Amino acid sequence: FYGTIRPKRVIFPGERPLHALRERGVEYVEVRLMDLDPFEPVGIRAQTMRFLDIFLLHCLLADSPPDSRDEIGEIAHNQHLTAARGREPGLSLQRGGRPVKLVEWGGEILEQCRPIAAALDAAQGGDLHVQALDAALAALAAPDTLPSARVLAQMAAAHDNSFTAFTRARSEAVRDALLALPWSAERQQAFEAATATSVEEQRRIEAADTMPFEQYREQYVSPARLGLRPLRGDVALAI
């Protein structure tokens, strides 16, 4: 299934993800809505990762009553508005059938996260999580500091408003930054050995494969693999 955040588990070869979740539970949560930060060589800042830890813990710990059709519709509406016009001054979203300013609602959520940030800092020492939360609050109040605004500003200032030129320049800068990092002969040998092992394993698997693809596909999507009992055609329930 598709979602911006979804439960996951490492699967065995040939195993369906839903079967792995049902049999062995959630192993980790996949956050799929993050874009790469073009201004960071590795695509994300440590401060951003700390904020994600805070926010995800808030999602885990906050009350979450059952949703309704109306709320699901509001969520889709709010996601679209935020993605398309999130930096627009005074932008309003819908909450419980009433308008609420994006900045106001976002500020409420971030303040609810403060005890979590403080608890993480108390456990780990320092104040890096509180700093990450404060940075998020500052960005909420100054949308021109957000990565999307910075991209547009650099496109206008240095690339004649060409996104292609901007991304090429950033790609070259990231390449140079990564190539400048130290790289030992031992590490190179380790990666070459891992590559050779992977290629050999691929050859072994392909040589042992005798099942026609269509037969494999039918077995892979079969309800029987999930322990499901078909009911009324395409409807199935777990047993």
Automatic annotation (TrEMBL):
Keywords: ATP-binding, Glutathione biosynthesis, Ligase, Nucleotide-binding
GO molecular function list: ATP binding; glutamate-cysteine ligase activity; metal ion binding
Transmembrane segments: none
Domain Glutamate--cysteine ligase residue range list: 1-80
EC identifiers of the protein: 6.3.2.2
Xref: Pfam families: Glu_cys_ligase (PF04262)
Protein's pathway: Sulfur metabolism; glutathione biosynthesis; glutathione from L-cysteine and L-glutamate: step 1/2
The keyword Ligase appears for this protein: yes
Enzymatic reactions: L-cysteine + L-glutamate + ATP = gamma-L-glutamyl-L-cysteine + ADP + phosphate + H(+)
CC terms in the record's Gene Ontology section: cytosol
EC primary class: ligase
One GO BP: glutathione biosynthetic process
Family per similarity comment: Belongs to the glutamate--cysteine ligase type 1 family. Type 1 subfamily.
PANTHER family given in the database record: GLUTAMATE--CYSTEINE LIGASE
Protein name per UniProt: Glutamate--cysteine ligase
UniProt source species: Variovorax paradoxus
Lineage: Bacteria, Pseudomonadati, Pseudomonadota, Betaproteobacteria, Burkholderiales
